[in-house]
Structure formats: structure tokens, C-alpha cells
Design brief:
The chain has 325 residues and is mainly alpha-helical. The protein is built from 14 helices and no strands. The chain is 65% helix and 0% strand. The relative contact order is 0.14. The structure holds fe (ii) ion (FE2) (2 copies). One fe (ii) ion binds next to helix 8.
Length: 325
Amino acid sequence: MKPQGNPAPAEGGSVKDIEQEGYLSKWNEESAVRTKPYLYACDRVVNDDSASSNWFFPSALPYLFHPLLAGLTTNQVQELLARNLITFLEYTTLLEHRIVNKSVQFIAQDCLPVSIPHGMRMDALRIYTDEGYHAIMSADVAHQVSEIFEINYGTRKFNRIARLEAMAEGFQFATLGWFLVGFVSETAITKQFTKMGQASLVPGVYNMLMDHLSDEWKHSQYFVSIFSYLWPRLTEAQRNFCARQLPAIIHECFRLDGTLLERDFSEMGIDNDIAQIIIEERGRESEHRLRARAGAATTLHALKRCSFFNDPRYAASFFKHGLID
Ligand SMILES: [Fe+2]
Ligand SMILES: [Fe+2]
């Protein structure tokens, strides 16, 4: 028999409300799939107006400002942004299906080692639906932009997804491990979206990302509340498992895949030596650790709230990965 108990309070509702109705009880009135008009058409013409509309956030591509790329034309910069948008959306489509929704299924079907109250399992079903819709809008915009730029994008592989799945194969506690993968992914993704307000984006892209973001803030808080609910109810062995796996999952979620950049540069006729230099610089372990620590700030904050780091063994595990001081 699984242990039962009250969920930890989350923003916007009492413990009892959340247990009975769920954290996303206003899903019918608030979620993108239920309420937002589908305004994600990307007009070919705006490509000529690159001074006022970017295809992706320049701040998400720090290498754009690398001295070796100072000679790029405005059109080349926009194509690199478009290629990164397509990569991001393709990756998002797969992540929603193969990673997040796999994790969410185990909550919805009450397969975790601790029983989850009805309302919180209903939330998991809502998130499953949200993510399916996010995959549709992401795949649609990726396709539109690839047509505009005549980019053949259908054969890219995403090593991170394959590595996360391979990692999950070996989990000692399979469903708990999948929950951790979802928890890290869903608390990390909002961090990427916070760059949104800093750039003027093509309207269809902007609408799509904003609608996605409005759901993701809630998903992030939901996963934090589920972790807070689980943590005090786990056995010692399950906690040790979490402390071992979480830094490894975080590390994996922020590892860059240089092959994608190499391919974009090659297809655009940019010198391969430049690609290699940038990949080497971005791939350094010190850079990777900085990205992981900054990107996982919400995850780490959630762990602190649960007094996770009060156990010196757990703190040491995160310290070893450069995630805490
Ligand atoms: Fe999503
Ligand atoms: Fe999500």
C-alpha cells in the first residue's frame, strides 16, 4: 500500500483545493488549447523586415556576437535565428511527446511510489493534453519556417532525448526516475522562455511562444508542488536515488549538441573551422556547468524549499556537479 497524505501548498490555492480540484483547476478558462485562437501563421514577407522582427531570440544564441562571426550579413543572422527556431521547435515537439508526457502518464495513472491525490492526477491529464497541443503548434511553426527558408529539417537527431531515454532504462525506481526527468525538464524550460520579452519576434512565432509560455509557468509550479508532495513521503532508498539521479539529469538537460550547429553552418556555407572553434568554446565543462546551474535555478530552489540539502551527502552530490556552492 502506498502512503497517503496532504499535498504541499502551492501558489494560488489551499491544500484541500489542490487535493480535490487540482492546481490547474481553471484549465478550461486558462489553458492555450482551450482558450487561445490559433494565430501562428508566419508570413513570408516579414523576412524582408528583419530590422524589426527576429525569427528567434538573439540572446539565446550568444555565439552570434562572436568576433569570428562579425562579418555575417543581416540575412545570414536571420537565417541562423530561423534555423535555431526550427531546431528548438523540433526538439520541443519530441520532448513533449517522448519525455514530458511519458513522465506525466505515470502521475496520471498513479504509478509513482507514493499515491497522488485525485486533483493532482487530473492536473497530469490536463498537462498531457497541453503538451500534445504544444507539440502541434511547435511542429506547425517549424514546418512553416522551414518552407520560408527552404531548409530541409526532417532528419535531425536530438542526442539529448536519446540519452535521457537511455538513462531512464537503467533507473532503479523507474516511475520515480521518469518523474524526476519531467520535474527537471518542466522547471528548466521556463528559464529558456524568460528570454522572450527581450526580442522583437515575428508575430506568428511570438504568439505561439507566448501561448506556450503561459501554460509552462503553471506546469513548472505544478511539478514543484508534486516534488514537494513526494519528497517527505519517500523512503530512504528512494531519496538516495533522487539525490544520485537529479544532478545527472540536470547535467544532461543542459549539455549542448554541437552537431546541430555544425550542420547549420555547413548548410549556410560558413567556414567549418569557425563552427569547430565555437563548439569547442561552448562545450567546455566549465561553460556546461554554468549553463546547468543558471538554467536549473527553479529546480534547485524547489529542492531547497524541501530542505533537500540538509543532508550533507545530497549537498555533496550537487556540489560535485557544480550546481551549488
Ligand atoms: Fe509544453
Ligand atoms: Fe509543460
